Fold this sequence. Notes:
This protein is mainly α. It is built from three helices and no strands.
Amino acid sequence: MPEARTPADIEADIVRRRKELAVALDEIAVRVHPKTIVGDAKAKAMGAVDRTAGRAYIAANRAVTDVRAQFVNEDGSPRMERVVPAAVLAVAVVGSLAVFSARRRRR
């Protein structure tokens, strides 16, 4: 059979429960405060930006590494069979753009 509670026990229980409820209400008030909501939204947005920037960096780094591997051997020496044609192509493109630009200016 459960023990009978005294009025002092019941009152102490009520005081304890009120304190617990006050703490819970304070926590809820902090969570629903507009500054807290804005701060949480900013943190989420910054996290998304950081993740996106990180992924972009990784993708760019991977692309640069892949392109570099096409023009440089593992020992770091240039692969002339690939560098020379690429350089000739770049010079041809820049030269063509210069010629077309000069022709447009003359007109």
